[in-house]
Amino acid sequence: xxxxxxxxxxxxxxxxxxxxxxxxxxxxxxxxxxxxxxxxxxxxxxxxxxxxxxxxxxxxxxxxxxxxxxxxxxxxxxxxxxxxxxxxxxxxxxxxxxxxxxxxxxxxxxxxxxxxxxxxxxxxxxxxxxxxxxxxxxxxxxxxxxxxxxxxxxxxxxxxxxxxxxxxxxxxxxxxxxxxxxxxxxxxxxxxxxxxxxxxxxxxxxxxxxxxxxxxxxxxxxxxxxxxxxxxxxxxxxxxxxxxxxxxxxxxxxxxxxxxxxxxxxxxxxxxxx
Length: 274
Description:
Largest sheet: none
Structural class: mainly alpha
Distance between the termini: 36 Å
Strand content: under 5%
Number of helices: 14
Oligomer: single chain
Radius of gyration: 18 Å
Shape: globular
């Protein structure tokens, strides 16, 4: 494995880690950086290159599990998080309800979704997602009613899950869709972000697992170092970005990310359609 190829893997791990949990679309950024510049499909092959983009999400998953370990252990019944401000507790049913809509639609429309993995589709998704985020900041409740995960209702979990379906469109952003949905339902930006990150773990594990199984015959241990480098890079930068984002989101909200998305879409459109 050439050193430059390992650098490619680390760059993609960096992109994944820094964008997975910000509302800017990690999938969109990976498609942009890889398809336009790094082109790992020339090294790994088309199927294995797509799988690599999925596999490095495992590094991001590990980072989320580390940051929210108390919540995950609590969901399994091995730890009790006391919250005197809530009459109920965030539990596995909230998670299942939130995951069902995107899981069902993802399975039904998988072939159509795969066709959207291109830069032109990403450009449109970046703009539409940015519009939703700006609308959320402008019209969302000024004083949130839900200030703890334990105050989320099953109905709210379902609506946020329906909003997550928008993220099946590459470039839209899972966190952008679900945080917007949560805030419009009366959640604080921090609670909506926490719910988004926790929901991301099972859906990312499922996507990674399915992709690995389907592409197993296309994977080669000759490129094991490539996968490991991407995984470690993704984990390290995810850990940094999650902690930074959770401290930042309540202060700056979504509009700055929306502006970045619009600028990025304009630059990409100029490059693609010139």
